[in-house]
């Protein structure tokens, strides 16, 4: 990977400050990388090259005056194609969507733009973010940056691929059941689902209060910087949760003395032994850093998989989506979306209410769990990525290690923790509601002790092409 494309955000900013590098140079390098790699992996589905270069030139002028406008001035950022970006259409991976360009940014995107970010393109998603692989009727199949025969995960697979291959150092994604953390795990990047309501979702947000927006990055420090911008309270704004002024503060304070619960696998989940071993080694490193680690069975999750609470709410949500699509166009929907919508349409009010009651009970139980622990660590996913195309039947249920965090609104982050079988896997950090900063601190401590994680781009274009040739 080009040295510029492998830089952390603070390194880019330092180079801008010392006039060793220009935002225009960086934006051009990112666009060149998209042209080189995107045809192989299909991570970016829309570009605004003219707008991005114009914004880069404005950023360059600000840096030349010594007057950057924000924490991300001159940093290229992509946005998952479920989120509105002014000047680009929001297609949701759907043939039923409109191709007209958006006139306004989503609230989170507006915060990025005000910070000086260069919003250059949209990343691929499964249709309406419906599943944990990234393919859609509109944009086709997105492939893993480590092996094109495999999925990068979903539904934020395009964002994971873009970050992993240097097609921009940061991406804004969404997570309704693991859609940030699963592709981060399978693609070897860092992804965080913040506490619910930490980042504004706007009027187009998921009315089931399952999905939220969060950062994807190559390092924890970059994710913390992006979250600082996304979560910063505007003047006069009210927030349901207390907002720290800067998520970058304290990430190097370490984990010594923290009470950390370690759950190798909740009841009913079989974790691939090689993944379990990678996670166990990572937890050992956390313990060596001074954390008080206790292995636990995580009793509040007993029965979660069998309850169907996530599937019930998720399918009702998609039934509502389908009702908004004109009847004549519904045949254009992904068959998986149609199946979800049909299942949701059959759910009665009592069943839906029971799912919401079960959700509340789980939230109460997990709140009590964190009376005894500061953090919880688990594998991010129990197995490696499936081959493309398609999604195996055993992966069509709610992701067992991630979706319950959406039910409870808890913050969670996935950090690469090994290459079992030559492919990335992830360690998931979970905390009580509002503990986003503590999660980032612990994740940074682990990341620092682990050392640099290989970048998918280091494999080179030939390696990615060769892997794809074996499909």
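^ Assign residues to that structure.
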């Amino acid at each position: 990977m080009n040295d510029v494309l492998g830089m952390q955000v603070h390194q880019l900013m330092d180079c801008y400050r010392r006039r060793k590098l220009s935002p225009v140079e960086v934006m051009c390098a990112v666009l060149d990388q998209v042209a080189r790699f995107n045809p192989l992996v299909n991570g970016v589905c829309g570009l605004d090259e003219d707008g991005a270069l114009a914004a880069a030139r404005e950023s360059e002028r600000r840096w030349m005056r010594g007057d950057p406008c924000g924490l991300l001035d001159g940093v290229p950022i992509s946005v998952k194609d479920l989120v509105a970006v002014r000047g680009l259409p929001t297609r949701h991976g759907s043939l039923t969507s409109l191709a007209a360009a958006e006139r306004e940014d989503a609230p989170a995107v507006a915060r990025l733009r005000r910070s000086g970010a260069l919003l250059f393109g949209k990343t691929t998603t499964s249709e309406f973010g419906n599943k944990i692989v990234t393919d859609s009727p509109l944009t086709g199949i997105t492939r893993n940056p480590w092996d094109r025969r495999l999925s990068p995960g979903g539904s934020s697979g395009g964002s994971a691929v873009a970050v992993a291959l240097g097609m921009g150092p940061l991406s804004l994604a969404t997570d309704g059941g693991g859609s940030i953390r699963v592709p981060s795990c399978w693609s070897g990047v860092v992804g965080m689902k913040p506490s619910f309501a930490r980042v504004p979702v706007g009027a187009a947000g998921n009315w089931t209060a399952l999905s939220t927006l969060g950062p994807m990055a190559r390092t924890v420090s970059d994710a913390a910087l992006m979250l600082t911008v996304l979560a910063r309270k505007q003047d006069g704004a009210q927030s349901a949760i207390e907002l720290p002024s800067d998520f970058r503060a304290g990430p190097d304070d370490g984990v010594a003395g923290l009470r950390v619960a370690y759950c190798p696998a909740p009841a009913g989940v079989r974790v691939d032994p090689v993944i379990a071993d990678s996670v166990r080694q990572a937890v050992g490193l956390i313990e060596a850093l001074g954390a008080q680690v206790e292995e636990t069975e995580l009793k509040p999750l007993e029965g979660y998989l069998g309850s169907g609470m996530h599937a019930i709410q998720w399918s009702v949500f998609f039934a509502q989506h389908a009702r908004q699509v004109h009847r004549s166009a519904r045949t254009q929907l992904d068959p998986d979306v149609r199946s979800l919508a049909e299942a949701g349409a059959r759910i009665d009010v009592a069943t839906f209410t029971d799912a919401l009651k079960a959700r509340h009970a789980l939230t109460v139980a997990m709140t009590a769990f964190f009376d005894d622990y500061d953090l919880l660590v688990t594998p991010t996913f129990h197995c490696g990525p499936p081959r493309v195309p398609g999604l195996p039947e055993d992966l069509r249920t709610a992701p067992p290690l991630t979706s319950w965090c959406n039910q409870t609104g808890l913050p969670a982050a996935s950090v690469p923790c090994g290459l079992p079988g030559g492919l990335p896997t992830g360690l998931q950090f979970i905390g009580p509601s509002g503990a986003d900063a503590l999660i980032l601190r612990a994740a940074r401590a682990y990341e620092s002790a682990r050392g640099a994680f290989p970048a998918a781009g280091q494999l080179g274009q030939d390696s990615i092409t060769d892997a794809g040739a074996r499909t």
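The chain has one domain: 9-469.
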